[in-house]
Amino acid sequence: MKSNEEIVREAYRLAEGNALDGAGFRALFTEDGSFNDIPNALSFRGDQVAQAVAGFAGVFPDVHRELLELHALGDVVAVELRIQGTHLGGFPTPADEIPATENRIDVPAADLWYLRDGKIERFNCYNATGVLLAQIGAHPDFASAIAAA
After folding, report:
1. Neighbouring C-alpha atoms within 13 Å toward the C-beta of 134
2. Quick one: which of 44, 38, 32 has its CA closest to 119?
3. pLDDT, position 72
4. What is the pTM of this model?
5. CATH T-level topology, domain 4-148
6. Would you give the distance in Å from CA 122 to the centre of its chain?
């Protein structure tokens, strides 16, 4: 049986732009496992897990996750990383899609992986969404926020 660290490293490998395998990524999860994008309040289950990694790779086809620190603590694996890639696809937002800018991203993140019996039960991704948006040129509209208040 693979260690929890090996399972998490395999998950990252399968979510890379050059080796993308959404079905393989999904297969690492328990049947009821979840992938939670905490800053954006998004949660994915079942086949949505595979669609989430494929969707991100559609926006950043060369996506790479540079693992800086990885610590396996029993059934929890904590990872500090940087999400890197080039904005080559439309980035969906509630307002509309941000067209590709060809800007590079290098976004700090921390991931917590919770495993049970050799499968991922929950994956919580804490990414710096504000940094990502700024790097693709989508700066906050403070004037509108102030006017609305």
Report:
1. 8
2. 32
3. 97
4. 0.93
5. Nuclear Transport Factor 2; Chain: A, (3.10.450)
6. 13
